[in-house]
Amino acid sequence: MGNTFYFDWEISLISFLQDLLGKNGVRLFSFFSFFGEEIFLVFLIGLFYWGIDRHKGRVLAMSVLFAGVFNSMIKNIFLRNRPYLVSDEIDLLKPVDPNADPMDIAAQGYSFPSGHSANVTAAFTALFLLFRKRGLLVIGVILSLLTGISRFVLGAHFPSDVLAGWACGILTVLLTHYLQKRFERKRLYLILILICLPGLFYCRSSDYFSEYGILLGFFAGDLYAERFNGFSYTDNHFYQIIRTLGGALIIVGVNALLKVPFDREFLESAALLPFLFRTFRYFLGTFLAIGIYPYLFSVFGKKTTDQRSRRG
């Protein structure tokens, strides 16, 4: 099933916190876990890319998507079992995939490093590098800490997974930031795609294939969107939210629609073909949301060409 390694204090700490916090504490930490989840990150990236500043949204997306895929590649090297699989003292209080069997490693993924911890840390590290605001740094540190702690309180990770996730999030953003200064955007996209490509040959958990599909779809869609001369943006917060929700709906809707012709057994199989189909589903939905969807923006709010989108 995977590899088992941990420090004794990790099991003791998780068990102690689960007993101490009880149901109300679990609900609280379930909330903080949300900041490392795919839906929050898609919303955050989309809010910038579709509504606020396309260039900053692009940089944020590169950082977060690369961190997510690279983290999944590391997981599939160490193949560390989650704590609830190796100790009867630990309860899984929030599965990674609530629709799948908690014992299904292909669906629930491996433990080391923590993807949620890497995701939220990458997002706020990227935002800090973009804006250089101390307030963002403080918020990022607090949310990263709370999200990370939530992951082992909920029984999904060991504390050492969280530490490694924080490190992975910071280091991948710094690498992306460094590469962005050295290469123009098309070449940078190609470099990141090639760095993440080897996972196709050895990863056997669904998180890698989902995240790689989103990464490919975003990069392809962003380059395709350059075919028209930027797109209109709006300073109206209501329209920014509407645009973001619309884009997220496209990604989710296309993914769900493409699953219809196939039975559940095929979709949940840990074989390579279903995994590649998963990558295609996420690629197509993201490509349509990033590359095609902005054509509709002329009907929302003030019709202004986003000059900022031409940078980088």
Could you characterize the architecture of this molecule?
This protein is mainly α. The protein has one domain. It is about 70% helix and about 0% strand. It has 14 helices and no strands. The N and C termini lie far apart (about 45 Å).
Chart the SSEs and their pairings:
Layout (H helix, E strand, L loop, with lengths): L7 H26 L4 H15 L1 H25 L4 H4 L18 H4 L6 H17 L2 H20 L5 H24 L2 H12 L2 H4 L3 H20 L11 H23 L4 H4 L4 H21 L20
Helix pairs in contact: 1-7, 2-3, 2-12, 3-6, 3-8, 3-9, 3-11, 6-7, 6-8, 7-8, 9-11, 11-14, 12-14
What's this entry about, in short?
With 312 residues, this protein is mainly α. The protein has helices at residues 8-33, 38-52, 54-78, 83-86, 105-108, 115-131, 134-153, 159-182, 185-196, 199-202, 206-225, 237-259, 264-267, 272-292.
**Roughly what is the average pLDDT, rounded to an integer?**
88
Strand segment count: 0
User: What share of the residues does DSSP label as strand, in percent?
Assistant: under 5%
| Gyration radius over CA | 19 Å
Number of distinct helices: 14
Query: In terms of structural class, how would the helical and strand content be classed?
Result: mainly alpha
Q: Tell me the helix content.
A: over 70%
Q: What global shape is seen?
A: globular
Largest sheet: none
Distance from N terminus to C terminus (CA atoms, Å) equals 44 Å
